[in-house]
Amino acid sequence: MAGVWRAFSRTKTTTTRDLKETELSRCLGVFDLTALGIGSTLGAGIYVLAGQVARLQAGPGVVLSFLIAALASLLSGLCYAEFAARVPKAGSAYVYGYMAVGEFWAFVIGWNMVLEDMIGAASVAKAWSQYFDSFFNDSIRLTVEREIGTLHKAPGLGTYPDIIAFILLLLMTGVIASGVKQTSITNIIFTAVNVLVILCIVVVGCFYVNGQNWAGEDNFLPYGFSGVLSGAATCFYAFVGFDIIATSSEEARNPSKSIPTAILLTLVTCFLAYFGVSAILTLMEPYSQIASTAPLARAFDQHGLYSVGYIISVGAICGLTASTLGSLFPLPRIVYTMARDGLLCEVFARVHPRTAVPVVATLVSGSLAAVLSLVLDLQQLVEIMSIGTLMAYTLVAASVLIMRYQPGRVGLTKDESAYFPTSSEKTGLLSTTSNGTAGKPKAGLSKYFKPKDSTGFVLMETDGDQENPKEQQQQQGTATLMDSEAPSGGGYQPMDVTESVPDPRPEPTQHTGQLVSWSVHIIVILMILTSATLIFAQDYVYDRAWWALLIICVLVSAILSLCVFIWRQPQSRMRLPFKVPGCVLLCPVSMFVNIYLMLKLKPATWIRFAIWLAIGMIVYLGYGTRHSMEARRAEEKGVSPLPDVISAPKHEPIPEDTDRKDS
Questions:
Q1: Residues near 430 by beta carbon (within 8 Å), at least 6 away in sequence
Q2: Residue ranges of region Disordered (predicted)?
């Protein structure tokens, strides 16, 4: 039993070199990443969702629903931004969980992300097919049923083979397999058209607004503030998709800066789009008169602007295309990362030498998604996507909180993240002479210094290849220890780092790190109990039954006490490229929102999730535990595969963070 626990709990270890070197192509900038995030998040739902929430749940208060949903999504976005800047590797929540809480939970998250992206791509492709077919009065569907026939009415099968969705996904798979830059360009084109259509809707709609539709509380909040909160829970899923940016971090030119920026830009842009469309729609028509189907097109029809409907159709098609690409893009990268770690078959870790894309993972996962769209009715499976997304959000928030209070270092420091080699460069620093001494550095290098110890510095370059291949064997990650006296001709000035003022803050230890880790686990359990009470005993809570209120008060008090306990523990001094502000408060809030929404899902969804998870456990126990790279490393070292904490080498002190402790 102890061996099983060690296998489940072993964490992923990395070096600075591991985090910077990659077989993939680092070619994506902030604009590319932001476009990927917007394309994946801002699908065709914007043309339908605002009308549905306004008509049935919140009225004009839908604008507040989107605001609350955006703020809740921002909490998760900040957590993703910190970890993506710290650990710029493909795999997103899977990698973060592997480094923070262990292999078992990492596999669970990764396995569910595979299903989430596969179903997401297939369902969006089917929506694209149905929308496209509607332009021809369903003639494509009728022709397929007449010439090929219908599928047998077995549970879960569609009514007919959706050939259009199948072909679309194969085309998108081909685009993704051709290279990440080609994928980015394709996404930018469709996303730009979608954004322009949304902008057109908002601008044209401004000329037909009626302020009386918002006048008075009865008009603006017809369902009360509870309706706004109910609408916010629905609108929350409209912001799902920004995690594609974190999945792409291994292909970003400077992920420690571009990933956080792109995530924030994506969420802000999507909020402005949802806010603008919902505001225009509810100002153009009374909420009670909003159409249940094609609400935006019908609203413009009421004002005689029939041509706007065609523009909306173009935007919806482009939005669905970008969303299909965005759902399919992260799928092979998650499979590739899990295979690279030994948890899935090694063949999925192969990267094409020319396109720098995990080609086997791309072709296999894309083909499976295409087959799903061809024969299955995905309506009943769509909610499983929500479990995978919310579980990943919860794990990332918990991981950020845990890692802030661990001893040693995990990931890149702020100085180390200043430079990443491109696909045409190698990681390199000073050249060395034949006798191993440091020679004159290459011209045109940008230098980054940080204290190493009393004898030297770390130097990191921003471009150029190694002049001497022997140096690559002498490097540790991307750093080379230099003598306290700079080499002649180099132009570097020595610094006396021994005179720095000592930091009075205590450093975290193995014991305090374990206390924080267990505290976070207990907080998760308490949040599950709190959410279950609020959901399944909501009538008693609304009626202010004393026992229900007592349970809520006890659980919330325990959660707050543990948060204060964590806050009082010594925090890591590691200087991070990006930090969640007030993580001891914001991370638990993010965790609670996600856990609450998970428990709101239908029981049938959890049953289907359990079936998929059972299949995953067979794969993990039958293959993953035996081929795990971390297990191999532990066996080679002849030590227990379970490290108590992730600690830094003793010769590599941690760069201190001068930020406030509660940051």
A1: 438, 439, 441, 459, 471, 480, 482, 487
A2: 424-446, 459-512, 634-663
